[in-house]
Design a protein that fits this description.
The protein is of the alpha+beta class and about 170 residues long. The strands form two sheets. Strands 3-4-5-7-6 form a five-stranded antiparallel β-sheet, with helices on one face.
């Protein structure tokens, strides 16, 4: 797995080596946590504490997830400085996606109902996308939205590298 500039993403390899998480209180004890065993998408940027992945959803180009590396369920499970650090990454991703994709609106969501592993969805929205004004998990409103800007994973990766602080790890 390559994160950026041809470097092996050691963070993903560490995450990939985990196989099971006991997710107490979520009805998933002993089941596999998808975000502990997979990257959750194409890795665009990674640090020791979190990673940014591109979600493969042709209806929502630019849809990214910011995934906390350690298996925790809620924002309140983090220390205040960790929360701030995670949100700084979420806001950086939002800034880059807005700049590159020029959506009508951005949605930020942290649900975790199906995957109780702390992660944020950063979703560009257009007035004519499949679900607008519903959330992307809601009822489909239309079948054929107009084409939206095509931006490569490499372009997103480079823009994220510039947006996030140079002292942050990139792979």
């Amino acid at each position: 797995m390559v994160c950026s500039e041809g470097m092996t993403c050691s963070i993903f390899l560490q995450v990939q080596s985990l196989q099971y998480c006991d997710i107490l209180g979520a009805g998933m004890t002993g089941k596999i946590c998808e975000l502990c065993t997979t990257a959750g998408g194409t890795v665009l940027w990674a640090s020791p504490t979190c990673r940014v992945v591109l979600v493969d959803d042709p209806s929502y180009p630019g849809f990214c997830r910011v995934v906390w590396t350690a298996h925790v369920r809620e924002m309140s499970d983090l220390e205040p400085a960790q929360r701030q650090s995670l949100m700084n990454v979420v806001f950086a991703v939002e800034t880059v996606v807005r700049s590159l994709f020029t959506p009508d609106k951005m949605n930020l969501a942290s649900l975790g109902n199906l995957t109780p592993h702390l992660h944020w969805h950063v979703i560009p929205r257009w007035h004519d996308d499949r679900h607008f004004p519903e959330p992307i998990w809601g009822n489909v409103q239309r079948d054929a939205p107009r084409p939206h800007p095509a931006v490569s994973a490499d372009t997103l990766r480079q823009a994220l590298g510039k947006q996030l602080h140079p002292d942050e790890h990139q792979g």
